[in-house]
Amino acid sequence: MMRANDEEPLSIEDHILSTLSAGTPQTRQQTKSLPVATLLEPVQSSTLYFVVTTIDSRGRLADQSPLRILGWTPDCAITITTVGRAAIVATRSAGPDAVTSQGHLRLPARVRHVCRLDTGARLLVAASPDRDLLAVYPHSSVEASLLAYHRALRHQDAR
After folding, report:
1. Average pLDDT over residues 139-146
2. Which residue in 7, 70, 139, 159 has the fewest CB atoms around it within 10 Å?
């Protein structure tokens, strides 16, 4: 949905669509010099491991691969905190929570409540082997991040 004055699209879908309409091919101008290729900025490498997974009625994340990447074993002590609507998980020798005996990450009810996670919700999980921690983001946080990214691109292109 666009705002009445068409300044800023309200959703990520609107931003993507506006990018498509703004990217219509323009007629080529005649130049006297040879064309120069646009250089691409180097892509930063990352050690983060990403996966999209679901959560079951008991708070278990379906995909266990982030835990394998981190080397977290069944019954490994962890601490789970929330930052906004994201859950941050780190290993701690005396953590109050633990990886399940079947090797699943289980988000306790208190965390699911704060993050507003329902059974079957799709989550973005980012594992950082360098920092030995894991972050769990609900789809609303991912959508808000994408919206901010596309807004920043739009403002950057407007300059």
Report:
1. 90
2. 159
Total length of the chain: 159
Q: Which residues pair with 137 in a beta bridge?
A: 124
CB neighbours of 15 closer than 8 A, spacing ≥ 6? 9, 147, 150, 151, 154
Highest mean pLDDT among 20-24, 46-50, 76-80: 76-80
CATH code 3.40.50.720 for 49-141: no
Q: SS3 string of 2-30?
A: ECCCCCCECCHHHHHHHHHHHCCCCCCCC
User: pLDDT value at position 75?
Assistant: 92
Specify the pTM.
0.72
Summarised one tens digit per residue, pLDDT across range 11-39 is 666 766 666 655 544 445 555 777 777 77
Tell me the one-letter amino acid at 11: S
Q: CB–CB of 68/114 below 8 Å?
A: no
